[in-house]
Amino acid sequence: MFRSLLQSPPRILVLGFAGIILLGTFILMLPLSGRNGESLPFIDALFTATSAVCVTGLVVVDTGTHFSVFGQVIIAVLIQIGGLGFMTMSTLVAIAFKRRISLRERLILQEAMNQSTMEGIVRLIRKVVAYSLILEAACGTLFAIRWAFDMPLGKAAYYGYWHAISMFNNAGFDLFGDFRSLTGYVYDPMVNFTAMFLIVSGGIGFVVLSDLAEYRKTRKLSLHTKVVLMMTGLLIVFGALVIFIFEFNNPRTLGGLNWGGKILGSFFQSVTPRTAGANTVDIAGLRQATQFFIIILMFIGASPGSTGGGIKTTTFLIMAGAVIAMMRGREDIVFFRYRLVQERIFKALTITLLALLLIIGVTMVLSTTEDSSFLMILFETTSAFSTVGLSMGLTLKLTTFGKVMICLTMFVGRLGPVTLAYALTQKKGKELYRYPEGKMIIG
What we know:
There is one protein chain. The chain is built from 20 helices and two strands. With 443 residues, the chain is mostly helical. The chain has one domain. The protein is globular.
């Protein structure tokens, strides 16, 4: 029976992520992981490990004040494994020991990286690791230089590289204490731009990073890269504009800031739902219209093959393209003079519908078990599914049942509802016949 479970790449991914989470849970429960030698309760350790491996950032205990340096390093390792994928890390070890990558492992990597073909998958893994380490090292150094003005050099370096790992992997964990994230640096352009660069770099996907790195040689970008860059730019600019307008005179967020602070705050809060979880203004202090708008941004999320979650920018664009094509009476969805095949459209529809059903279902359940407003619960659930990590304050008040539900939501969000569905169902062969075409009245 166990052997049959390991025959499916989606099942291996599910079991692998679950195994890493359980291992992280038991390590975080050790007295060595606590700052004062305190053991973390199982449910809180499970929540923290799940949030780290699923690169979410929702926390039930403050990372900076509760955990020792050992515990914080374990969380950073879990974030790195979760962001890059445990198969990527195991492949890196295999490459280091010059072991041949088997066909089954290539199939699992193809599933993990959301690729349509196995061709060049090992070469892509090498690039993934190289780009990640280079970006984290470079931006970690910038953070360290900046924070060396506020703290001892050793601590600044530790904070710099730790937060670079968290930001690039879109995790949202921080060490500043009191659950304040980057609110103390709302005016700081170096911290803001470095963090936003890391978030966007991790969120656009490794295929896009590879395309951009090789642009000097190839002088061309793939359709996927063009779509991702276009959607990322549009969502960031449009999001910043909406947040700037809605929060311009809100005294709890942008109202008390000067023009520079308002612009930086607007852009950072537009970038972070894609799916980083860090924040420079109080999320609970945002107007309800802004909070709901951020829910939409979180639902869309990052891009395929990235460290982020959500239904993904390409899925959202395909759904929007289908609506526009239908309104114009066209049969095909066309982007940059390329027509999309129906399989892509069906997959986008499936992902969107499954994500909506999951978020609606979890929100309805939590609305009966948690003593909070509907918007706060919807915000928390969407943040968990899209592995964002932003919170209006509900995380600290969750019941044990609520923590379990959010853990499951983060797990499904990190793996993707379609991957989980494939893992839980028996794969069928190709249909040998087709039924006659039927007609239904729609609309």
